[in-house]
Write a structure and sequence with these properties.
Layout: H1 2-22, E1 26-27, E2 38-40, H2 53-58, E3 63-66, E4 77-79, H3 83-98, E5 102-106, H4 111-122, E6 128-130, H5 140-147, E7 154-158, H6 166-174, E8 178-181, H7 189-192, H8 195-202, H9 204-211, E9 215-219, H10 223-228, E10 235-239, E11 246-252, E12 258-261, E13 264-267, H11 275-288, H12 293-301, E14 311-315, E15 318-323, H13 329-341, E16 347-352, H14 361-374, E17 379-383, H15 385-388, E18 398-401, H16 404-410, E19 420-424, H17 434-437
Parallel strand pairs: 1-2, 2-3, 3-4, 5-7, 5-8, 6-7, 8-9, 9-10, 10-11, 15-19, 16-17, 16-19, 17-18
Antiparallel strand pairs: 11-12, 12-13, 14-15
Helix pairs in contact: 1-3, 3-5, 4-11, 4-12, 11-12, 13-14
Length: about 450
Amino acid sequence: MLGLFCYIYFMIIETLYKHFLECTSVCTDTRKIEKDCLFIALKGDNFNGNKFATLALESGAKYCIIDEKEFAKDERYLLVDDVLETLQQLATYHRTQLNIPIIALTGSNGKTTTKELINAVLSKRYKTSATQGNLNNHIGVPLTLLKMNETIEIGIVEMGANHPKEIELLCKIARPDYGLITNFGKAHLEGFGSLEGVIKAKSELYEFLAKHHKTIFVNENDPTQVKQTLNYENVYKFGLRTSSDTMLELIKSQPFVTLKYNDSEIQSQLAGTYNFNNIGVAIAVGSYFEVNNEAIINAIENYTPTNNRSQILKKGSNTIIMDAYNANPTSMLAALENFNQLQQDDKILFLGDMFELGETAESEHQFIVDYLEKNKLGDVYLIGKNFYKTTTVNSDRIKKFEAFEDLKSHFNSKDIENSFLLIKGSRGMALERVLDIL
C-alpha cells in the first residue's frame, strides 16, 4: 500500500514539475505576475489564493496551482490536495534535480547579513543564488529553491524559525550539504520557551547535516557551537584559535570591524564587534570553496549593509547607527555594549520594544533598562508599551514613551545636532521613522 502511495505521489509531482519547467518563474501575488509564470494559490488567515487564480491567468500566468475544486475551469488550473504542501514538495523535487551544493544557515541574530556576506564572497568565483530579503520560512525557502536554475553553481538558503521542528522541516525541504548557525540568542522566546529551547531548535540544522554526513561550519569563538558539535564529523572550524581551519584576528571594531586574515588586513564597512563573527563565517566559507584571498578581501571590503542593518548614516550634522531591522535581548545588549565602547561625545539612543518574548518580556526589557542605568551611554529614549512599563531611576537621562507619536510630539520643539545616535528596535516598531523627526 505504501509503495502504491509513493508511486502516485511521484507521478503527481513529476507531472507538476513538467508544468513548472514550462514556466518562467513562480509567483504568489497577483500584483507581481510575470508573463508565463506559475501562480501558487496560497492561503492565509485573511486571504484565499484560490479566489485569485483566474485573475493570475488573465494577468499572464501560464498555470496556477489550486486546492479548491470549484475554482478549476480548464487544464491551466492544476488541482492538488494542499497548495502549501505541494509547493514544498515541488521545491524539494526541484532541489534533487539541481545537483548543486546548498549552504543553509540559521541563528538568532545576523542571519541576513551573514547570508549576504557569504553570497558576496562566493559570487567572486561561482554563479550563486541566495535567499532574497528574509524569505526564510516554510514558504520562503521553497520559493528560494524554485528560483534556482541549471546555471546556478551554489545555492545559499537562509532558514528562520520561531518554534521547534521548523528548522527540521526546512532541512527536509532544502536538503543542505553545508550549514552553519550564526549564534544562539534570546530570540522568539515566546515560541521556544527559553534559551535552551532556542539552542535545541536551531541545532536541528546540525542534526540534519550530521545524520547525512554533510559539512558543518563552526565558530570556535562560540562555546555553545563547539559544545553542540563535539561528537560530529565533517566539522570545518574558524575563529581566533591556531587550531582553526580558517584563523582570524580581530584588530578593531570602532568605528568599523577591521580584521586580519592570511597576513592581510581587511577593513569592512560593518559596525559592531558582533559583526566580526558574521564576517568570519563568510571568509571561512570562501576559503573552504577555494575563493582566492584577494577576491575574499575585495568582497568583504566592498560589502555595504542595507535595510536598516548596522548601517552608518549621516543626516545633517548627526551620525547614526541604524539597526532598526529587528531586535531581541541578545542583539540589543550587543548593540548597547558596542555603542558604549564608542569614543564619542553627545551620544543619544532611541530603543524600541523587543517582540515575541512571551512571559519573559517584562524581565528582559527591565534588564536592558538596568544596563542603561548602570552604564551612562548618553541620553536614552525608550519607545513602546513594554519599555514604558519598566522602572527607571534616572528619568532625566532615560525618557519613556508608550507610542511613537508621543516621542514625535516631544521632539516637535527640540533639535538634535552634532550627535552620535543608535536606533534599535524590533521590526514592528519601525524606528526608521526617527530619521523623520531629526
